[in-house]
Amino acid sequence: MRPSFGEILTCGIAGREHRGETRLLRIVISESAYLIWKLRNERVIGAKGDASNREIENRWLNTINNRLSIDCLLTNTKKYGGKSIRKSLVLETWRKVLMNEDRLPRDWTRESGGVLVGVG
């Protein structure tokens, strides 16, 4: 699936259903678009030059893993009360994209070692 420019710009408001796959798609599109914008600004405004493919891939993985960490933190009902995210939503959102997912505990949102998104 290749999103149109309009779908990229409206990904935060379009399809407000909160199913895992839909939510993951919105996260990936919005975070990727923001990273592209930052890379472009670094190249054009900061005169940094083109980023290598390896740098872009590493920055994208870091961006998505940071978002995963934020999702895990936001499941804390003691800290965020009614504004917290349901653990089941986070588990459903990130299902099938985690490294070594088959070795993770059923509820990995509180793992101190961290959980990473994998590419491959």
Brief write-up:
With 120 residues, the chain is an all-alpha fold. It has 5 helices and no strands. The two termini are 18 Å apart.
Note down, in words, how this protein is organized.
Helix content is 52%, strand content 0%. The mean pLDDT is 86. It has helices at 5-9, 20-44, 53-73, 77-80, 87-94. It is built from 5 helices and no strands. It has one domain. By secondary structure, the protein is an all-alpha fold.
Strand-helix topology:
Elements: H1 5-9, H2 20-44, H3 53-73, H4 77-80, H5 87-94
Q: Helix- and strand-based class?
A: mainly alpha
Number of helices: 5
- Uncertain segments are none
Rg computed from alpha carbons, rounded to a whole number of angstroms: 16 Å
Number of strands: 0
Describe the global form.
globular
Strand fraction: under 5%
Name the helicity range: 40-55%
What is the H/E string? HHHHH
Q: What is the straight-line distance between the termini?
A: 18 Å
- Specify the biggest β-sheet: none
Number of domains: 1
Mean pLDDT across the residues is 86
Any descriptors?
120 residues; mainly alpha; globular
